[in-house]
Amino acid sequence: MKVRHKKNECIGCALCEQEAPEYFTMDDEGMAILIDSTKMGAFHHRKALEYDRPALTRAAEGCPVNIIHVD
Ligand code: SF4
């Protein structure tokens, strides 16, 4: 499975870091970063473990600006 994050629309609420700290952390400007990701177009992408699907789904469903996608 993969996770995508549209970093430039993040508003810095930190919910994703709370729900999935192995995938998201906050940068020096207080915005979320998808750890170990590669930028492709508007999104940062990375592979994710199936084991982490529940946490990533909570992050995606909780993101107030809907910029996290689990595929
Ligand atoms: S949940 Fe969404 S808006 Fe909040 S910090 Fe994470 S990516 Fe940004």
Describe it.
There is one protein chain. The chain has 71 residues and is an alpha+beta fold. The protein has one domain (2-70): 2-Layer Sandwich (Alpha-Beta Plaits), CATH 3.30.70.20. It contains 2 helices and 6 strands. The chain has a 4-stranded antiparallel sheet with strand order 4-5-1-6, covered by helices on one side. It is globular and about 30 Å long. The termini are close together. Bound molecules: iron/sulfur cluster (SF4). Iron/sulfur cluster (SF4) binds next to helix 1. Residues 10-16, 32, 63-65, 67-68 line the site of iron/sulfur cluster.
What is the fold's blueprint, element by element?
Blueprint lengths: L1 E4 L9 H5 L4 E3 L5 E3 L3 E3 L2 E5 L5 H10 L5 E3 L1
The structure holds iron/sulfur cluster.
Iron/sulfur cluster binds next to helix 1.
Structure in a nutshell:
This protein is 21% helix and 30% strand. The protein is an alpha+beta fold and 71 residues long.
